[in-house]
């Protein structure tokens, strides 16, 4: 694992998200609670809706295009046979860290 | 021969360590105890009762002079340690050196001081030790105003203590809810209510900009320019491990002094314990793990090795009258399920988090009697499969009929209170059911159960089902969503009657079954709250659909459309040039004239939105709200200005209406039109409000539709003057804002309440009409502004990616 500091926790509002650009597309970084972060693929497998723009509730997000709901922890779509990629995250001293190794794997794929 | 042991710091952990070492082998060490404070070990977690006056210092001393004398401990109190010389194995105190064989660093933590101007003024105190506590007690004797910065455990205890001592206390908290590390929003809402009842003023999302004063503190200024008077400021925003001595001595320090499971630092003869350490990435602030560490360390020092493991801890707040409990991990997750119990009448909230048939977290407020039982279930990882149905009712209700989903209700004793408003217990309801009240309405008139606020309706219905079995058919009201059994109408009514002014208040008081709603209910509740309490409630962007959060319409490829407002459909060359320039500059692929008489720029990249808005703002263009559940357009024809048939200035009236109404949020989108004559070129007769000008004045039609349904407007009234036309329009829209269900267009709402009901309020009752107009104006004092300008100036950052790792890879 190689942890990359991508920004401050305070840069993402609670129940909000921001994107991080990577080689092969955007990763959506969600803040579901005061100190809880998830990173997943930003593209909904249905019609590529930008998940980072969805409404965040509990540990879930609803896609803004057609209301598919995803669990951010597992990446599974609720009630659909689909899933999105999830990436390890860490919070340290108020900063958000993403695992560079996992993101490069995505790039290589 | 005895080894020489030096302990730096006389806090909770070191006190326990000395006891453990002396109990196991009193002959092993010559102990020297340094403490920067001029006193020995006392129970720091009891400082809050000392502050509030419930205890004295003498009562919280854990080790007195006699103890140190009896155990032959050399006390160097009131003396700072200057350095640790590891090469010579000596500790350098202010009054001289002491040699050691083994050294324990127990320096605890230091309060975090926020770096704002004025932080060093006299009258600004922290809350860590007895001197701080005494300083606060001293300040409180003079009375006056105190501001506590930080709404965590420590801050709230300080605030409650100062308030008990007669000060007028305001708590400032940076986050959206109090004690966010220990509580979820619902529990924090109840805590806030209780603290406010005690006279504390609480401001959340409060960011301190400066502490004001010349010779001593006089006030606090917030980032939003709110000024607060203060005679005393307490900083309780957090703590950080006190690691300076270790760092200077070259011992490995991360956030805290790094130790292994034997509490050993990177120097094998030096150990550390308590709040100053970091173990496996964890820091420690509660007392239970500190005691564990002290026990392990005693073993390490005496060759009785043991290993420290991080365990769950439970939190309780030491403020009289605020009963809360929090333990374990209560965040949500895929494999996790919540069991939520709310009793609004008693102010009780309990939430259990379950994963793989194990209880992993618990948050409780108002009734924490079962807290330790739940904490045991968490610590012992007890399987809870067998008692799941009744788990939340606590240990007293285990062992009922598990197969029946209604068993929790069935298991309640006859004296259990079901309806808190009217004090009706289960026995009374069951008796009434046996006496013939076999449906909800009859039961309500017989017992008054669920007849007031209605939040216990679900329970009462379950009792009907338990008692009558299949003879009772559960009614089918259309609930807002899966988070509640209440309908939109019920929720709106309860928000008004119970004066619920925040989302956590709605979730708690109306018994939401999820921690923070879902994508269906959140936008609705957000609207209801801002419509009913425009000054008290602040719009929550995170509860809005992306279009309303980003003030642009998301397109199928994730790009956005930008539609500037053209008042009444009128524009000019300067505006058109600015639009053309913006389309060029941002590579807008499609420019389209809309049905609402304005121009749509389609395909703008999300990141470009603040910049394009800024450019359009410079030409005087503002948001057209083409994305909102709010006023969209007022379509007009050219009226008397140019048209040979025009009877009134339809364009002028359209512009006036649009300037009056823009920016307002409504249950669904609202479209208006004003036609200058009955030829109706502006197609006013299929709008939410459509005005047709005639020689004698204005015909006002409402509740038209031209979308999924097509429907002609119904005549609300004919009026003679332009002002009356404006008044009736505003009053109609406000009545719609106050009463309609979220996502009902006016035609659907009017069909439900009837045009007569609307007319009686908007047209006939002049007092009500003017109340509606005033209420609308009050709301517009907050919302009649351009969100594009606001976002371009203050929130542009949030439209950009948080980071761009593609750049890094290229380097």
From TrEMBL, chain A:
Q: Which PROSITE patterns match?
A: RIESKE
| Keyword Transmembrane listed | no
Give a yes or no for keyword Oxidoreductase in this entry. yes
Gene3D superfamilies registered for this protein in UniProt: Rieske [2Fe-2S] iron-sulphur domain
Which PANTHER family did the record assign?
3-PHENYLPROPIONATE_CINNAMIC ACID DIOXYGENASE FERREDOXIN SUBUNIT, FERREDOXIN-RELATED
Give the UniProt keywords, A-Z. 2Fe-2S, Iron, Iron-sulfur, Metal-binding, Nitrate assimilation, Oxidoreductase
Task: From the Swiss-Prot or TrEMBL record, give the protein name.
Answer: Nitrite reductase small subunit NirD
Q: Where is the signal peptide?
A: none
Show where the Rieske domain sits.
4-98
Q: Which SUPFAM superfamilies match?
A: ISP domain
Write down the Pfam families for this protein, in alphabetical order.
Rieske_2
Which species is listed as the source?
Answer: Sedimentitalea xiamensis
- InterPro entries linked: Rieske-like_NirD, Rieske_2Fe-2S, Rieske_2Fe-2S_sf
Automatic annotation (TrEMBL), chain B:
Question: InterPro entries annotated for this entry?
Answer: BFD-like_2Fe2S-bd_dom, BFD-like_2Fe2S-bd_dom_sf, FAD/NAD-bd_sf, FAD/NAD-binding_dom, FAD/NAD-linked_Rdtase_dimer_sf, NasD-like, NiRdtase/SiRdtase_haem-b_fer, Nit/Sulf_reduc_fer-like_dom_sf
The UniProt record lists the Nitrite/sulphite reductase 4Fe-4S domain at 629-767
Q: What is the lineage of its organism?
A: Bacteria, Pseudomonadati, Pseudomonadota, Alphaproteobacteria, Rhodobacterales
Ranges for domain FAD/NAD(P)-binding = 4-277
Coiled-coil regions listed in the entry: none
| UniProt-listed CDD domains | NirB_Fer2_BFD-like_1 (cd19943), NirB_Fer2_BFD-like_2 (cd19944)
Q: Which cofactor does it need?
A: siroheme; [2Fe-2S] cluster; FAD; [4Fe-4S] cluster
Q: Where is the Nitrite/Sulfite reductase ferredoxin-like domain?
A: 554-618
What family does this belong to?
A: Belongs to the nitrite and sulfite reductase 4Fe-4S domain family.
According to UniProt, the name of this protein is Nitrite reductase large subunit NirB
Q: Which residues form the NADH-rubredoxin oxidoreductase C-terminal domain?
A: 314-382
Give the top-rank taxon of the lineage listed in the UniProt record for this protein.
Bacteria
Biological pathway: Nitrogen metabolism; nitrate reduction (assimilation)
Query: What Gene3D superfamilies has UniProt attached to this entry?
Result: 3.30.390.30, BFD-like [2Fe-2S]-binding domain, FAD/NAD(P)-binding domain, Sulfite Reductase Hemoprotein, domain 1
Give the UniProt keywords, A-Z: 2Fe-2S, 4Fe-4S, FAD, Flavoprotein, Heme, Iron, Iron-sulfur, Metal-binding, Nitrate assimilation, Oxidoreductase
Q: Where is the BFD-like [2Fe-2S]-binding domain?
A: 418-465, 480-529
């Amino acid at each position: 694992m190689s942890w990359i500091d991508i920004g401050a926790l305070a840069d993402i509002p609670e129940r909000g998200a921001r994107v991080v650009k990577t080689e092969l597309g955007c990763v959506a970084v969600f803040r579901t609670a005061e100190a809880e972060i998830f990173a997943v693929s930003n593209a909904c497998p249905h019609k590529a809706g930008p998940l980072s723009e969805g409404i965040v509730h509990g540990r879930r997000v609803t896609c803004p295009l057609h209301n598919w709901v995803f669990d951010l922890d597992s990446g599974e779509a609720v009630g659909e046979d689909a899933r999105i990629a999830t990436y390890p995250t860490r919070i340290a001293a108020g900063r958000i860290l993403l695992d560079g190794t996992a993101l490069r794997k995505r790039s290589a794929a | 021969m005895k080894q020489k042991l030096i302990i730096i710091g006389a806090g909770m952990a070191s006190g326990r360590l000395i006891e453990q070492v002396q109990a196991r082998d009193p002959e092993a060490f010559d102990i020297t105890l340094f403490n920067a404070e001029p006193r020995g070990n006392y129970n720091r977690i009891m400082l809050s009762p000392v502050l509030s006056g419930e205890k004295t210092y003498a009562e919280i001393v854990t080790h007195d002079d006699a103890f140190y004398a009896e155990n032959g401990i050399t006390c160097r109190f009131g003396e700072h340690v200057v350095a640790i010389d590891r090469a010579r194995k000596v500790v350098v105190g202010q009054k001289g050196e002491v040699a050691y064989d083994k050294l324990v660093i127990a320096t605890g933590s230091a309060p975090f001081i926020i770096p704002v101007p004025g932080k060093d003024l006299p009258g600004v105190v922290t809350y860590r030790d007895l001197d701080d506590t005494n300083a606060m007690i001293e300040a409180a004797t003079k009375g006056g105003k105190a501001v506590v910065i930080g709404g965590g455990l420590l801050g709230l205890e300080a605030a409650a203590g100062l308030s008990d001592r007669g000060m007028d206390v305001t708590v400032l908290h940076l986050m959206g809810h109090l004690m966010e590390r220990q509580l979820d929003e619902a529990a924090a809402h109840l805590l806030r209510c209780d603290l406010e009842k005690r006279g504390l003023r609480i401001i959340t999302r409060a960011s301190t900009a400066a502490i004001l004063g010349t010779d001593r503190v006089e006030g606090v200024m917030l980032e939003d320019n709110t000024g607060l008077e203060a005679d005393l400021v307490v900083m309780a925003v957090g703590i950080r491990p006190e690691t300076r001595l270790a760092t200077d001595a070259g011992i490995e320090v991360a956030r805290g002094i790094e130790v292994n499971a034997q509490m050993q630092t990177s120097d094998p003869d030096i150990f550390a314990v308590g709040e100053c350490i970091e173990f496996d990435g964890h820091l420690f602030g509660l007392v239970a793990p500190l005691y564990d560490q002290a026990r392990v360390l005693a073993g390490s020092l005496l060759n009785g090795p043991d290993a420290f493991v991080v365990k769950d801890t439970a939190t309780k707040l030491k403020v009289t009258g605020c009963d809360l409990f929090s333990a374990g991990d209560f965040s949500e997750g895929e494999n996790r399920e919540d069991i939520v119990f709310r009793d609004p009448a008693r102010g009780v909230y309990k939430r259990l988090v379950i994963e793989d048939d194990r209880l992993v977290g618990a948050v409780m407020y108002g009734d924490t009697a079962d807290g330790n039982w739940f904490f045991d279930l968490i610590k012992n990882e007890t399987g809870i499969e067998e008692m799941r149905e009744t788990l939340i009712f606590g240990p007293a209700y285990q062992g009922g009929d598990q197969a029946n989903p209604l068993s929790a209700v069935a298991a309640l004793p006859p004296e259990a209170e079901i309806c808190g408003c009217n004090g009706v217990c289960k026995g009374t309801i069951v008796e009434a059911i046996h006496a013939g009240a076999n449906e909800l309405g009859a039961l309500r008139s017989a017992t008054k159960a669920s007849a007031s606020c209605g939040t216990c309706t679900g329970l009462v219905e379950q009792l009907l089902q338990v008692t009558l079995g299949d003879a009772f058919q559960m009614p089918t009201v259309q609930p807002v969503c899966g988070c509640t059994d209440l309908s939109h109408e019920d929720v709106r009514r309860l928000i008004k009657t119970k004066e619920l002014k925040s989302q956590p208040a709605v979730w708690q008081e109306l018994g939401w079954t999820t921690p923070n709603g879902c994508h269906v209910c959140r936008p609705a509740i957000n609207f209801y709250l801002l419509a009913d309490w425009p000054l008290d409630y602040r719009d929550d962007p995170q509860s809005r659909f992306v279009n309303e959060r980003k003030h642009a319409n998301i397109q199928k490829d994730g790009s956005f459309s930008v539609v500037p407002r053209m008042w009444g459909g009128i524009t000019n060359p300067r505006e058109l040039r600015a639009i053309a320039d913006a389309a060029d500059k941002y590579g807008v692929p499609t420019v389209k004239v809309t049905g609402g008489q304005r121009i749509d720029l389609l395909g703008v990249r999300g990141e470009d939105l603040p910049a394009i808005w800024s450019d359009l703002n410079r030409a005087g263009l503002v948001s057209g709200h083409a994305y909102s559940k709010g006023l969209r357009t007022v379509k007009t024809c050219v009226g008397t200005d140019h048209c040979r048939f025009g009877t009134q200035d339809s364009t002028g009236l359209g512009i006036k209406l649009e300037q009056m109404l823009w920016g307002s949020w409504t249950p669904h989108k609202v479209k208006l039109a004003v036609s200058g004559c009955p030829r109706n070129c502006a197609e006013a007769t299929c709008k939410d409000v459509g005005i047709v000008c005639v020689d004698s004045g204005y015909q006002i039609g409402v509740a038209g539709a031209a979308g999924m349904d097509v429907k002609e407007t119904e005549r609300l009234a004919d009026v003679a003057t332009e002002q009356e036309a404006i008044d009736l329009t505003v009053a109609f829209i406000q009545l719609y804002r106050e009463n309609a269900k979220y996502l009902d267009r006016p035609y659907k709402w009017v069909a439900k309440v009837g045009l007569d009901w609307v007319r009686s309020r908007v047209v006939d009752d002049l007092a009500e009409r003017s109340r509606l107009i005033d209420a609308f104006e009050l709301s517009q004092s907050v919302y009649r502004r351009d969100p594009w300008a606001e976002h371009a100036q203050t929130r542009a950052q949030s439209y950009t990616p948080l980071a761009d790792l593609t750049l890094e890879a290229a380097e």
